[in-house]
Amino acid sequence: MDTAEEPTTFIADIVAGTIVEAGRPHHTKVLSAPGVRVVVLTFGAGHVLKEHQSPKALLMQTVAGRLRITADGVAHELAPGALLRLDAGLPHMVEALEESRLMLTMIG
Question: Is the pTM of this model over 0.70?
């Protein structure tokens, strides 16, 4: 994990060191700086992260694989390159349609 104390932070490979564990998601802390935290979540195919909420606003971007994120009653399929923003406190769930890596940015 990088704790930013400089005015800029560069991370060459956010998926380095991430692992997929069967039956449960795994998270790797990538960056922590004032007002922002970035983690990479990994999911085995078929894993479902039940409905939950975050106290912070979220940016979700699939780095590898395909995920279905359901929030506010709407399902969004995220493939690499897609971006989803969620307000703080919005209940959501995550389903891995295949082995996947999700970059999660928490803001605030």
Answer: yes
